[in-house]
What does this fold into?
Amino acid sequence: MLKVQDINLFYGAIQALRNINFHVQPGEIVSLIGANGAGKSSILNAISGVHTISSGEILFEDQSIKKLPPFRLVGMGLSQVPEGRRVFAKMSVHENLEMGAFTRSDTPGIDLDMERIFAHFPRLKERRKQLAGTLSGGEQQMLAMGRAMMSRPKLLMMDEPSMGLSPLLVQEIFDIIREINQEGTTILLVEQNAQMALSLAHRAYVLETGRIIKSGAGQALMQDEDVRKAYLGG
Amino acid sequence: MNLFLNQLINGLHVGSIYALIALGYTMVYGIVKLINFAHGDIIMVGAYTAVIVLMTLGWSAPVALLAAVVVCVIFGVLIERIAYKPLRNSPRISSLITAIGVSMLLQNAALLIFGAQPQPFPTVLNIEPIKLNGIQISFVTLLTVGISAVLMILLQGFVIGSKAGKAMRAASEDYTTAQLMGINVNTTITLTFAIGCALAGIGSFLFCMAYPAVSPTMGSLPGLKAFIAAVLGGIGIIPGAMLGGFVMGVAESLTKAYISTTMSDAVVYGILILVLLVKPTGLLGKTTSEKV
Ligand SMILES: Nc1ncnc2c1ncn2[C@@H]1O[C@H](COP(=O)(O)OP(=O)(O)OP(=O)(O)O)[C@@H](O)[C@H]1O
Ligand SMILES: [Mg+2]
It folds into this structure.
């Protein structure tokens, strides 16, 4: 579904990504784990076109997307939950969800999906008229996820959904990610919370200073000596 | 009392023109964070367009108004595409200086084409003022305030209710994330400039009906005042620009009547400074505490 081939990304003179290769198959949950500054967000932003890669190729459903502007990808079925949620603070919960469905015009389908999202996140339904900026951090994360789901993506990319959330809420968010995946959405998950990300993922990649240093099944990586030392606290 | 009411009405008259122009500043600032210093000169562009249509071509006022709006929109959109868009990722100061440059370019081009001599704007409406218990309201005033009010209500409805309006608000808040929603932010920015300049075109026509002299630099002062109105109300906030416009107009007109004509600008700037000292974000500005 998604193939990332040998991409390099620079911010000025700084090289953030070095020959990154990985792929995501339909139906999978794939996790990218790595420390701060490893380049996880850079990968997602390169895929979504927010940053332009200097070399390499990105294929989404066998079509090259490396030159497409970000707004074109949503209609193709690629959606991103950005790092730090980035909800539209001065817009209501309902309007934020509407923005997620910006590329769609099938009103009945949009309403249906909104109900589906409210079923996943009942707290958003209670607060649908509230301004997004007044939601709690956890609620904002739910909104950011719901908003990205409103475009009915084939591939949903999430950048650190667990950031700043209590362990209980992290568990809840990860359960929902699994549900979304079981409903048929492929997921590319970027996480610092390696424990959670690996236990959820079918496959995972470990990123260090802009390079992929390991890959494998989520469970297998959890047993890996180096990964345990570096990311799972022993 | 009658003097006061008459001046209040005059204030609303100029204030509504300031408000229309201020909307262009505030909407553009909201989305690209640029003070479009050329916006005042769009007024001049609209005014010359109207004069040409009315005097040279001898067509009717509604056609002249329409032409002014169309030409203003074209200028605004072209200026954005040619001068501002290439600098969108450059430091803010570069765009600001470019905006000043565009303003000078427009003024000097007009000077070259039309000369420095102000041209009279013809009387397009000759209707008796309405008299009510000693208060006199000119028809132009009624028309100006009425048109402005309708336009502002329409604009508010558009921004709050329509899909394009919501995209505009989303892009104003977070440019990158708006793109991740599938919003073509370039289109949204073009639309913002177009709406701002359409309002300036109408504002220009109404301004010329009140002050019928058209010259290359005629846009500077109303442009500056509208900019102040936008800052006064809270730059980037649409109802703020409307409120700011009316406050400016009324303050100016009351100062002229009760203090002195020459003091009116000083009072207006004084109000701006006072408001910004007390509330740096402007009258309707909020210092939002955003959770992260
Ligand atoms: N816009 C930018 N300009 C310059 N350098 C950047 C930019 N964005 C990221 N970088 C640099 O690129 C490197 C990778 O950053 P990136 O945001 O991809 O890391 P990350 O793995 O997502 O980290 P975190 O877990 O902290 O979010 C870092 O060294 C960062 O400083
Ligand atoms: Mg990151």
About this structure: Strands of chain B lie at 119-120, 130-132, 135-137, 213-214. The mean pLDDT of chain B is 92. Chain B is about 75% helix and 5% strand. The pocket of magnesium ion (ligand 2) is lined by residues A 40-41, 83, 159 (CB under 6 Å).
